[in-house]
Design a protein that fits this description.
Elements (H helix, E strand, L loop, with lengths): L2 H14 L10 E3 L6 E3 H6 L15 H8 L5 E2 L18 H12 L5 E8 L2 E8 L10 H17 L3 E7 L8 H19 L4 E9 L1 H4 L8 E4 L10 H8 L10 H6 L5 E2 L2 H16 L30
Parallel strand pairs: 5-6, 6-7, 7-8, 8-9
Antiparallel strand pairs: 1-2, 3-4, 4-5
Helix pairs in contact: 5-6
Length: about 300
């Protein structure tokens, strides 16, 4: 009989009470400077490192909350066919979907919401990178088409925050079909005369970059966001050249004219509101041009006396 575990330990627990369970995610390590940050400080700072300013990834719900005014509403999305190819690799695709849905609380990798940004109407489509790396399948295509239709119906600009690894391989050609489908959705918004704004977050790659993500009227990115189609190593092996420093990062793309601006997360809300105001401001009516211009007066004739040469 072990008197310490059978007698002494119960007495101590009864005296001081049961120890409280401590969550494992109280502290977060910055991937850039490797400093530890308390989770509440990180949330208050919009998941930007308080030491070096590195922009960490945000959940879709947190990003919507940080962008829209209070009172925003989440849009119920149509159900997309689950596991259309009955795909299986090491695990069933259906099992992977269920696991991602349980962890994220979302049906697929995009959250659609409507509300206002500093009093200006907007429809948001926000990618959740934690949902199978934000990969684009039929559910994502359905979400973006729904967001585009809602923007046209409400006469509101459409803003999409991208964070994706590209097309979802488990849906094969169906995932590739979402590329032209999302492009058509952006055309619906533009043909209605509404702004389409894209905010490229870390990372935005693959089929998302190759489709709607590069078709915005205004292209914005967060600092140091990875943006590209293929990986840098694949490109180096293809062109057989060493890529420049910072290749495929937001600042490099801004210098080379791919982006319109790089905006810090704390300034994103005010910047989006300003951009919406500029794009939605009614143009001043130009003064009517007369059908016929008035005749100009004939020039006066001046007589000049001839001068004899000396």
């Amino acid at each position: 009989m072990n008197w310490i575990s059978d007698w002494a330990l119960p007495k101590v627990k009864a005296l001081f009470g049961q120890p409280r369970e401590v969550p494992d995610n109280l502290w977060h390590k910055c991937p850039a400077c490797e400093q530890m940050i308390f989770h509440r400080d990180l949330e208050r700072n919009l998941h930007v490192c308080t030491h070096c300013g590195h922009h960490m990834r945000m959940t879709a719900a947190a990003r919507v909350k940080a962008t829209l005014d209070e009172g925003w509403s989440r849009i119920e999305l149509p159900k997309a066919p689950a596991d259309p190819l009955r795909f299986r690799d090491q695990r069933k695709y259906a099992d992977r979907l269920k696991e991602a849905q349980q962890k994220s609380g979302m049906d697929d990798a995009v959250l659609v919401a409507q509300g206002q940004i500093l009093g200006r109407k907007a429809v948001l489509g926000v990618f959740e990178f934690g949902f199978m790396a934000g990969s684009m399948g039929a559910g994502v295509g359905e979400a973006l088409v729904t967001a585009a239709k809602l923007a046209v119906l409400q006469d509101s600009p459409l803003i999409v925050f991208t964070a994706s690894g590209g097309a979802r391989m488990q849906e094969g050609a169906i995932s590739l079909m979402q590329m032209p489908r999302t492009v058509i959705a952006t055309r619906m918004v533009k043909e209605a005369g509404l702004p389409f704004i894209v905010v490229l977050c870390d990372p935005t790659t693959g089929g998302v970059t190759a489709s709607f993500a590069m078709l915005g009227d205004i292209q914005i990115a967060e600092p140091n966001a990875l943006i590209g189609f293929a990986g840098a190593r694949v490109i180096e092996q293809t062109v057989r050249e060493k890529l420049p420093e910072g290749f495929q990062r937001a600042e490099y793309l801004l210098e080379h004219g791919i982006l319109d601006m790089v905006v810090k997360r704390h300034d994103m809300r005010a910047t989006l509101a300003q951009v919406i105001s500029l794009l939605r401001e009614p143009t001043l009516a130009a003064e009517p041009v007369p059908e016929e211009f008035p005749a100009l007066p004939a020039p006066e004739t001046v007589e000049v006396e001839a001068v004899e040469p000396a």
